[in-house]
Amino acid sequence: MKTFNRLLLLLSVATLSGATFSACDDDDKIPATNPSLCYSVGEIALGTTTYTSIIPSVSLPAGDREYSIQQITLNGNPTDQASATIDPQGRITLTVGSTSDCVGHYAVSVRIAVNGEEFLYNDALRVTVTGLRFKEETVSIKHLEGLTLPLQEVYLAQTAANRFSLDAPADRYAHISINPADGSLIVDPAAEAGVYPISIKVVNNSTPSGYVFRNLTTLYITSKPYALSYTPAEVSLKADEAHQSQRPTLHAATDEQGEEVEFSLVDDFGGRFRIDARTGVISLDRDNHLVNQQAATFRLQVRATNNLGTTAFPEAYVITINPRK
């Protein structure tokens, strides 16, 4: 009987020497009978390459403790995107990369040796490198189509009560918004053609002032030219007066390279008027060849072309030339 009890005791010690325990954070409550290791949950922004933990609270038998890093995971999978060191007091320094694929939830498992026994704490330290990610870095739709694009990945230490918003000028991004509950990008069909970098602001209980994740994707709303305007659109000149218009405002977007538009005049009235093919600026020389004694009005039709089509805008610019007196 004594031999049996001795064997049972040896088996119990052997099991404890290889025991695996759950680590805790500040909010967990571990029964006093369990050997515990507690760190605070950490959070750093992408681009901050190191995080140093607090000295953990430890509930282990008295003796010299030897800490070592057992494993690092990113979103539940072993990773080589990070490295970690641990000092004699259990303080961990986690080093991560600064590229977009380094965002996510990191977990560091720790092994502690004390009095000949070893204790393994899986996911002892948890650190979130905050970030949001859409599926594509660029999104292209046609004008008047509309779109709802969900976030593919959300990495925030606080997983509840997050509020999302678009970080962009409201007038420039009219009819483009972010769903405040889940961060989805919403593009109304009325949104103007153009190129829109998308940045999102997140506010939650831990960060009430919010923080911004910039240039998560770029939205391209493509169209052939569909609106053109000069300011002013009408001018009155003397017969010997040279002139240059302002550069026009054009609504069109071609592709991921942005707007590449060529301008031309449908009728240049015998070479009297010129238009810059790249800028759309209309000009005439001082010697404008007015021979009539009455004022003459010229209604210029401007043609704009991109790789999606051509549109002619009648009476885009009106010039009245008054005779010499």
Molecular structure report:
It is built from one helix and 27 strands. With 325 residues, the protein is mainly β. Strand 16 and strand 17 form a beta hairpin. The model is unreliable at 1-19 and 26-33 (pLDDT under 50).
Name the features:
325 residues; five-stranded mixed sheet; 1 helix; 5% helix; rod-shaped
Topology record:
Elements: H1 2-17, E1 18-22, E2 36-38, E3 42-45, E4 50-52, E5 57-59, E6 65-74, E7 77-78, E8 82-86, E9 92-96, E10 104-114, E11 117-133, E12 138-142, E13 147-149, E14 153-155, E15 163-166, E16 176-178, E17 185-187, E18 194-203, E19 211-229, E20 234-238, E21 243-244, E22 249-253, E23 262-265, E24 274-275, E25 282-284, E26 296-306, E27 309-322
Structural class: mainly beta
User: What sequence of helices (H) and strands (E) makes up the elements?
Assistant: HEEEEEEEEEEEEEEEEEEEEEEEEEEE
Distance between the termini: 132 Å
Per DSSP E runs of 2 or more residues, the count of β-strands stands at: 27
Kindly state the mean pLDDT as a whole number?
Answer: 85
Oligomer: single chain
Helix fraction by DSSP (H/I, runs of at least 4): under 10%
Main sheet makeup:
7 strands, mixed
Please give the count of helices: 1
Strand content: over 45%
Outline type: rod-shaped
Low-confidence stretches: 1-19, 26-33
Query: What gyration radius follows from the Cα positions, in whole Å?
Result: 34 Å
